[in-house]
Design goal:
Layout lengths: L51 H22 L6 H28 L6 H5 L13 H8 L6 H25 L3 H28 L2
């Protein structure tokens, strides 16, 4: 797997995952992501979404599902640092949604309010095509641990990046392909931001 150092990451160690990469220190050099699941995982949400507008609605929905999860965790955890981190992650998703909404307006032939746009949301799932409960069942993170929380967020973002790339490969509409690849690149940037946050906790 290239020059990446294989380690037992704190969240995934001992949980049945054979390929785990060090997310601290080497994030700047991390140029590819490891996703899991069957090739068609999550693609059903993009079925029939053959225009940039419909693809953006799906992407916004996936972001909303993840933000809802982060917000739901705030009252569920006891550790203040963990609560603050879930709020920070939820706020980051708002930034992603703002970009998606503005992108939608650039393609739409008519002005659409944010409220009207949000009425088009198609599914309450996390970004990578799984529900948040499914992610929790897979990774079994300690939700009181900041390192585990960031590791979970990075796993979801890596899965989302993979999903958008697969959706881009599958679509026959060139405009949709371009917008999906742009969203995928934004997920890559988000992964880098999370990696820097992880690094700061290990210094």
């Amino acid at each position: 797997m290239g020059g990446r150092s294989r380690v037992a990451a704190q969240m995934l160690s001992g949980k049945g995952f054979s390929e785990v990469y060090n997310l601290a220190g080497g994030i700047k050099g991390w140029t590819s992501e490891s996703a899991f699941g069957v090739e068609e995982l999550g693609l059903s949400y993009f079925e029939g979404a053959e225009t940039p507008e419909t693809n953006l609605i799906v992407a916004y929905s996936l972001e909303q599902g993840l933000r809802d999860f982060y917000l739901s965790m705030i009252p569920a955890v006891k550790n203040k640092d963990a609560r603050d981190l879930f709020q920070k992650l939820a706020d980051i998703e708002i930034n992603h949604q703002n970009r998606i909404y503005n992108e939608y307006l650039s393609f739409s032939e008519q002005s659409v309010s944010r409220e009207e746009f949000e009425q088009s949301i198609v599914a309450r799932v996390a970004e990578g095509g799984l529900t948040t409960q499914e992610y929790l069942n897979i990774f079994k993170p300690d939700l009181e641990s900041s390192v585990d929380i960031i590791s979970l967020a990075m796993s979801i973002e890596a899965q989302a990046l993979d999903l958008y790339q697969r959706a881009a490969d599958k679509t026959s509409d060139e405009r949709s392909k371009k917008i999906l690849m742009k969203i995928a690149e934004e997920e890559r940037v988000h992964l880098n931001e999370l990696g820097k946050l992880m690094d700061s906790m290990n210094t």
